[in-house]
Amino acid sequence: MLKRFTISLDEKLLEDFDAFIKQRRYVNRSEAIRDLIRSSFVEKEWQAEKDVVGVISMVYDHHQHQLQEKVTEIQHDYHHQIVSTTHIHMDHHNCLEVVIIKGQAGAVHELADRLRSLRGVRNCKMAMSTTGKDLH
Ligand code: NI
Fold it and tell me: Is the pLDDT of residue 136 over 70?
């Protein structure tokens, strides 16, 4: 059931918010507010050591000595958290690996940190999301 409430905002802040809404292509203020609230709840879940889901994407040079072995070894240490891995050979040197993760926020962060800090990893980002079970 939808409930309405009124928000009071400083004029300048509201102007900035409307510009943000336009830029992000939200259909209206309500949808933008709902999305922002949900985002902050997702962030809270990650901080509160809840069960989370996410995607780690990394780009690395597979010619780097032993890097491929290290990536595999680390991923095996977190087999409980890894749902699936997709490897794409982008060109002669570079690989893109996308790892779908699910589990305790701390363990998932640890996995991303271990992969990111390997020598030869050029880029490693984690998209943090939520299982959605506590999210409306
Ligand atoms: Ni490859």
Answer: no
Strand (E) or helix (H) holding 19 = helix 11-24
Range of the domain at 95: 51-130
Question: Distance from the CA of 128 to the center of ligand 1, in angstroms?
Answer: 24
The helix (H) or strand (E) run that includes residue 125 is strand 121-130
- Element (H or E) spanning 61, and its range? strand 51-61
**Is residue 136 domain-resident?**
no
CATH number of the domain that 58 lies in? Answer: 3.30.70.1150
86 within some domain: yes
Digit-coded pLDDT (tens) for 34-54 = 999 988 888 888 887 788 999
| Residue with token string 């890894």 | 82
Query: For the chain, first and last CA: distance in Å?
Result: 11
8-state DSSP, 136? -
Ion ligand 1 nearby residues (CB, 5 A): 62, 89, 95
What pLDDT shows up at residue 39?
87
**DSSP label of 100:** E
Tell me the pTM.
0.78
> Ligand 1: distance of its center to the CA of 111 in Å?
20
Query: Structurally, how many domains does the chain consist of?
Result: 2
